[in-house]
Amino acid sequence: MVEVRGVRKSYAGVEVLKSVDLTVNRSEVTCLIGPSGSGKSTLLRCVNHLEKHDAGELRVDGELVGYEARNGKLYELSDKRVCEKRSHIGMVFQRFNLFQHLTVLDNVTIGQTQVKNIAREKARAKARELLARVGLDAKEKHYPAQLSGGQQQRVAIARALAMEPKLMLFDEPTSALDPELVGEVLDVMKDLAKSGMTMIVVTHEMGFAREVADTVYFLDGGIIEEFGDPHKVLTAPSSERLKSFLSKVL
Amino acid sequence: MDTNGDVAVKVVPVRHVGRWFGVAGVALFVAMLIHTTLFKVASSTKTCVTTNGVKTCHGVLVWRFQWDIVGQYFTSSEVLHGLLITVELTVISMVIGIVLGMIVAVMRMSPNRVLAGVAWTYTWFFRGTPVLVQITFWAFIGALYPHISIGIPFTHIAFVHITNVNVTFTTLEAVIVGLGLNEGAYMSEIARAGLISVDEGQIEAATSLGMTRRQSLRLIVIPQAMRVIIPPTGNEVISMLKTSSLASTVAVLELFGAVSNISAQNFKIMPLLIVASIWYLIVTTVLSIGQFYLERYFARGALRSPPPTPIQRLKRDARGIASKFRTKRGVSGAGA
Ligand SMILES: Nc1ncnc2c1ncn2[C@@H]1O[C@H](COP(=O)(O)OP(=O)(O)OP(=O)(O)O)[C@@H](O)[C@H]1O
Ligand SMILES: [Mg+2]
C-alpha cells in the first residue's frame, strides 16, 4: 500500500530524512516511534505530499506521490492532480486543526461537498453516520471550541474518514490530550484498525503500538534504526538507541 | 441575603471621594455645554419699543448655534442630494478598496516573486502619496490622456479604445477610482494581517482533505480572517465617509461640497457645518451598528459563547429587574 524507498529530505541544508525505507501492507497498522526531532512528522507529511521529498521513491497504492513517470522521466503533477491524490489519504494532526468557523457537522461535510462534489444532503447523511461511529452524533451543531480535546480529535478522525481514504496518517493524535481523554481517541483508532483500514501512526503510546500495530518502525536522526513485530521491537530491542529510547518513554 | 440561614454580613463598599469630585466637575461642564449650545441667549442686537413715549429696549433671544437655520437646511434638497453622493462615494470606493485589498494581499503572500513584488509596489505607491493628490490626478487625467487605448504596447493592437476621456470619464467616477485605489492599498495590509492570523494548521488540514490553494483560501482561511479584518475595516469605512469630502475640491457636490456651496451664498457657515456634521454622525452611527452585527457573525465558533446583542442584553436586564421585584415582594409577603 505504501512503499518508501531511499527517501531523503533536507531543510536548509540539514538532512532530516536520510534514506528512509518503509513498507506498509494493505489493512495493516504501522506505528512510527522515535525521539523528538527524529523526522517522524516529516516522513508522514512526505507520504501525502504536504512536503516534497528531495530524493528517493514514494508510492501509495502503487502510484508515485506528487509525480508521474513517463518516458523515463519524472513529471511533477499539477496542483489539481496532487490534490486529487491527496484526497484519498486521510490525515489526523496532533493539534486537531478542526475548522474553527464551522460546526462539527460542517467540518465533516465540507471535504465531501467541495472536493468530491457529493450532494449536500448525501454528504450530511454520511457525516452523521461517521459522527455516530466516533460517538459524537449529539454534538453536530457545536463549534470546535465548544468541545473537549478528545471530542475534537474524534471529529477530526470523522472528517478524514468522510473522504473514504485508502490510507490514514496519524501524527501523534493523542499527544495534546489530557491523560483521561487519550483512551477515547485510541478506542476509535482501534475500531478503525479492526475494520481493516491501512494506518500509519506516529505515537508515543507504546501500549497502543503493542496491541494494535502489525509493524513498528523506530526512527532516530532521520534513519530507521530498527523495525519489525511490535512484541519483538518493543520488548527485546536489538539496537542500543532503541533500548535507551524505550527506557525513557516506558 | 441570609436565605440560607447563614449569618448575614453587610458589605460596605469603599467610598471614592475623589471620584465624586470628578463627577461633579464633569456634570458642571456638561451643564455649561448644554446651556451654551441648546439654550437661547440675548444677542447684541436689541429691539426697542416705544410705548407712551417711553422707550424700552431688550436683547433678542437667539440660539448661538442658530438651530433654526440648521433645521431649515437639514433636509433641504441640496443637502440630501449631497448626502446621497457621499454615501455613494463611500460605498463604491470601499467595495473597490476591499476587493482590491483582498487580491493584493493574496498576491503579496504568493510564492511567485513577481506577483508579490507588484503587490508590494502598489501598496508602497498608493499609501505613500496623499489621497488629495491622487483624486486630483484622476480628475484631470483627461488632460494627460485625451484618449485611452488599452492594448499591447508598441503595437497597434487595442482591446479597448476610449476617445474624449474628459467626457466619458466623469469627475465623480474619477473620484471613485482615486478613493478606491488608495483604499485598496490600506485594505491590502488589513487583509494581509487577517490572513496571517489564521493558524497554519487550518491550511494544512484543508490541504490534506484535498482542497486546492484557492479552495482553502476561499472556504477556510478568508472566513476566519474576517474576524480580524472587520474591526479595522469598519474604521476604514467611517474614515472613507469623511475622506470622501475631498471630492468637493474637484467640484463634486457631496455633503460637504453642498453645504459649502450654500454657506458661500448665505454666509451661515456654522449652522451649515453643523448640518453636515450631524449627517456624518448619523451615517457613522448606522455603520457602527452594522459593524457590530457583522463582527458577531464572523466571530461564530471563535468564542465558546458569543456575547449577547444589545437588544438581548436589554431583555435580560429587564427580566433581571422584574424578577428582583418579584422576589422582594415575596420576601416581604412572607415576613408579614
Ligand atoms: N519547515 C522546516 N524548516 C526547517 N526545519 C524543519 C522544518 N520542519 C521540520 N524541521 C526540522 O526537521 C527535524 C525533524 O522534524 P519533525 O517534525 O519531522 O520531527 P518529529 O520526529 O516529528 O518530532 P516531534 O516528536 O517533536 O514531533 C527537526 O529537527 C525540525 O527542526
Ligand atoms: Mg512531529
Brief summary:
The complex is a heterodimer of chains A (250) and B (336). The longest helix of chain A is centred in the C-terminal third of the chain and has 16 residues.
Describe this entry's structure for a reader.
The complex is a heterodimer of chains A (250) and B (336). Helix content of chain A is 37%, strand content 27%. Chain A contains nine helices and twelve strands. In chain A, strand 6 (67-70) and strand 7 form a beta hairpin. Chain A is globular, with a radius of gyration of 18 Å. In chain B, strand 3 and strand 4 (158-162) form a beta hairpin. Chain B is mainly alpha-helical and 336 residues long. A two-stranded antiparallel sheet of chain B has the order 1-2. Chain B has a two-stranded antiparallel sheet with strand order 3-4. Chain B has helices spanning 17-38, 67-74, 77-108, 113-128, 131-139, 141-144, 165-168, 171-197, 200-208, 213-243, 255-266, 269-298, 310-335, and strands spanning 40-51, 54-63, 148-151, 158-162. In chain B, helix 2 crosses helix 12 (269-298) and helix 3 (77-108) runs antiparallel to helix 11. The model of chain B is unreliable at 332-336 (pLDDT under 50). Chains A and B meet through helix 2, strand 8, helix 3 and helix 5 of A and helix 9 and helix 10 of B. The complex binds adenosine-5'-triphosphate and magnesium ion. The site of adenosine-5'-triphosphate (ATP) has 11 residues of chain A, from helix 1.
